[in-house]
Amino acid sequence: MANNIQAIRGMHDITPEQTPYWQQLESVVRDVLHAYGYREIRMPLVEKTELFKRSIGEVTDIVEKEMYTFEDRNGDSLTLRPEGTASCVRACLENGLLHNQTQRLWYMGPMFRHERPQKGRYRQFQQIGVEVFGMEGPDIDAEMILMSARILKALGLFDSVTLHINTLGTPEARAGYREKLVEYLSLHRDKLDEDSLRRLESNPLRILDSKNPAMQQLIEDAPRLMDHLDEASEAHFDRLKAYLDAEGIRYVVNPRLVRGLDYYSRSVFEWITDQLGAQGTVLAGGRFDGLVEQLGGKPTPAIGFAMGIERLVALLEDQGRAMPADNMPHVYLMAMGHEAEMKAMQLAESLRNELSGLRVLLHCGGGSFKSQMKRADKVGARYALILGDDELAGGVIAVKDLEKGEQEHRSLEEVTGYLASSLGLNK
Ligand code: ATP
Ligand code: MG
After folding, report:
1. Are 130 and 41 contacting, i.e. CB atoms less than 8 angstroms apart?
2. Ligand 1: does its nearest atom lie under 6 Å from the Cβ of 10?
3. Beta strands across the sheet bearing 77-80
4. 83 Cβ inside 6 Å of ligand 1
5. Do the beta carbons of residue 423 and residue 401 sit within 8 Å?
6. Phi, psi of 193, deg, nearest 5
7. Of 265, 329, 408, 412, which is most buried with the most CB atoms under 10 A?
8. Residue 1: its pLDDT value, please?
9. pLDDT beneath 50: ranges in the chain
10. pLDDT per residue as tens digits for the range 233-282
């Protein structure tokens, strides 16, 4: 037997059993985003490699080792997007969306990172991302956090997560701090792991983000950015906290929250759960005031966040949330014999015409009464409608309530009204 071709490691199918969770999550999130006036934007999955190098930063995990980069047939270097922010900024600039206007935008789709696959960490994964342009905050920073809180509440996950916030200050303030940090870390070179040694010169702040247990004490004792903040960033952060306090949103100020990418500044935040092992961040974001200019636009303040859908779905599944039943068929329509089959097809069409929202599954492919009834049970239909020779002759149809196990005959004219009232659908 030939070997079956398998999916690429870290890239998963989402089966029909799982899609209801996804669909429910997507629609809940979409409703909340629209309630705050965010509009959807859709970008290509592939961009010029240069875009990510310039925005994310050369010395980041993503650019150093996670990108799916390839040459297309013209010899151009292209990359499957590892995240959405860079593409979103590019799209805004290219479409003139930032000329004298602010934008509240969202997008949804797959991202690609060549990471070591494990629970909650995949090579193709799905994000819903949100970006705002042209607002300096901290009011909009607070709005974004409130919106993310509302999303988590709407999903029933609010009690499973904790909000961590931090401020990274301005790039200038960070530069001063960076020197202090490098000085401190250089004194403890012997305790740095290989990654950290490499980052010591290029991106020392990222060392604070290290998950290596052996380095935790060193990180704990490191000088804090919080103590080297510029006054304006400090005031911005205080005001953000005041907004959150006023709304009763609880948070942890986490000085080690530095985010992985170069482009962040000032407010950063993450919603973290302890229910998914090491992959605990389900939603993460922050301000990136320098990025638009870095990509060729006018200086434009900006802030955004992205949530990892696989991790949110995993939380929903772990909590044993009942599968949303709204894609189960209401009716399984069975027919025995050629004439009845023809009639059944017509009936299925007319039921769908007359009852909007009715989900009718027509049995196709013939077979015995018993085998058809088995199928009706298996798909979880509420009613089986049965058309056999007797029913045809009598101009009626058998209606079996599969929940109660009761069966009765109804006239073909009657059946629409009966389904409408028993299923609560509008005729
Ligand atoms: P992590 O620290 O877990 O690697 P990150 O900082 O790289 O996350 P972001 O780039 O901020 O992640 O992406 C936002 C969110 O997208 C994350 O909080 C997470 O929920 C999700 N995410 C990131 N990488 C992956 C992945 N490889 N597989 C699944 N979800 C992911
Ligand atoms: Mg990562």
Report:
1. no
2. no
3. 46-48, 77-80, 68-71
4. yes
5. no
6. -80, 180
7. 265
8. 57
9. none
10. 999 999 999 999 999 999 999 988 887 667 788 999 999 999 888 889 99
| 66 pocket-lining for ligand 1 (C-beta < 6 Å) | no
pLDDT of amino acid 404: 93
Ligand 1 binding pocket includes 203 (Cβ within 6 Å): no
- pLDDT tens for 392-412 read 999 999 999 999 999 999 998
Q: Under 8 Å CB-to-CB from 30, ≥6 apart: which residues? A: none
Q: In which element (H, E) is residue 398 found?
A: strand 396-401
pTM of the model: 0.89
Beta bridge partners of 130: 106, 305
Residue type, 294: Q
Cα–Cα dist 275/342, whole Å: 53
What single DSSP character describes residue 121? B
147: tokens are: 């919106």
Nearest CA to ligand 1 atom 8: 281
Q: How far is the centre of ligand 1, averaged over its atoms, from the C-alpha of 85 (Å)? A: 13
If one residue of 122, 164, 279 were mutated to test the ligand 1 pocket, choosing by the most ligand atoms within 8 A of its CB, it would be: 279
The whole-angstrom separation of Cα 278 and Cα 271 is: 14
Q: How many Cβ atoms sit within 10 Å of the Cβ of residue 53?
A: 18
CA-based end-to-end distance of the chain: 53
Contact, 333 vs 362, CB < 8 A? yes
* Per-residue pLDDT tens over the stretch 155-189: 999 999 999 999 999 888 888 888 899 999 999 98
Q: What is the pLDDT of residue 324?
A: 59
308 CA to middle of ligand 1, Å? 6
Ligand closest to Cα of 118 equals 1
Pocket test for ligand 1, best of 281, 282, 283, 312 (most atoms within 8 A of CB): 281
Closest ligand by atom to 111 CA: 1
Q: Which amino acid residue places its CA nearest to atom 25 of ligand 1?
A: 121
Q: Which atom of ligand 1 is nearest to the CA of 259?
A: 6
CB of 104 sitting under 6 A from ligand 1? no
Which atom of ligand 1 lies at the shortest distance from residue 285's CA?
11
Check if 152 has its Cβ closer than 6 Å to any atom of ligand 1: no
